[in-house]
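Q: How would the structure tokens look for this protein?
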Amino acid sequence: MTSADAAAIARWWYSPPYEMYSFTPEDEDWLLRPELRYHAAFDEHQELVGYFCYGEDARIPAATELGLYADESLLDVGLGMRPDRTGQGLGPAFLSAGLEFGQRNFGPDGFRLTVAAWNSRAVRLYERSGFSATGAFTVQEAGRSFLVMTRLTPRSDQARSPH
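A: Here is the predicted structure in token form.
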């Protein structure tokens, strides 16, 4: 991710009820921290369409405290699509590209996503992409419930198969 990518993403605003996914201009430096593994995503015209993060920053502390991220063989994935691109059926290809990148670069046994439980659009996308809910929790202070969803990679499915 470049400084220009981070500046653009930090200015994206999602309309209600998705505003919780918006960054602020102050988040620009956060997006550039290498240990958080944020990556900009571009379409075939080299236009910025979203971002992915892998690892620690894709986690919510309340779920960590509950042990919902205990399986270290799974790679946590966070993602966001540019607001004007959402709701247009682009989610499956976008998610697939981010998971392929994660598999190539980090080689996990599977992936884990944390999603707001009310976000049925995202939950449906993840389910259709092979994820299933493996945990749930509520952040009491914020009054928000979340699902933890996982998907094994085909390689790890075969490795765990009795055949």
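Residues 127 and 133 are 8 Å apart (CA to CA).

The longest strand covers residues 144-152.

Upvote if useful.
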